[in-house]
Amino acid sequence: MPIIAPSLLSANFLNLQADCDMLNASAAEWYHLDVMDGRFVPNISFGPMLIDFFRKATSKVCDVHLMIEEPEKYAEAFQKAGADILTVHYEACTHLHRNIQQIKGLGMKAGVAVNPHTPVALLKDILADIDLVCLMSVNPGFGGQAFIPNTLSKIKELRQMIDERGLKVDIEIDGGVTLENAKSIVEAGATVLVAGNTVFKSKNPRETIQLLKNI
Fold first, then answer.
1. Which candidate in 63, 131, 170, 174 is catalytic?
2. CATH number (domain holding residue 95)
3. Which of 19, 34, 131, 170 is catalytic?
4. Count of domains for the chain
């Protein structure tokens, strides 16, 4: 069964407490928290202050996805805010191994995200050092986009890379996950499903989370 990580970017920011209460009562294991800086991606979301509020609202895993440049400048702030997993983008890190060492040194699990155009083969030399790979299945920066079909091939390739080396690395899919395509995504080898609009725009979010969980 996949881990379900609803993206709070799609939540109702005028009523976050209600959405947090819903998630806490649901089968979702993680909160997926998207941080955007308006530089690495063409959008701005939120920073450590809001992560701190989410941390106080839940005992579930806070999965923080940094879509920002120079993430090393902010890793400690996100650790203090309560991030359990901190994911940085391959494309944003000139010294990726150093970034991963920093995150691990702060006591968090470390993830690496890759954009749709980035080959997963480039992760070969870092794979043994990380806990999670976040495959972007849309171009990062905005919610509500359609799933890019080629992502399924990337999941299969990455799954083979992980299994051949006997590693325990989660494969997280972020973007365009729906009730219709979730089964094929999991069958390809994904272990974590990020779902934003699919959950928060549904008539019954808790039921939708359970349906994703039962895929």
1. 174
2. 3.20.20.70
3. 34
4. 1
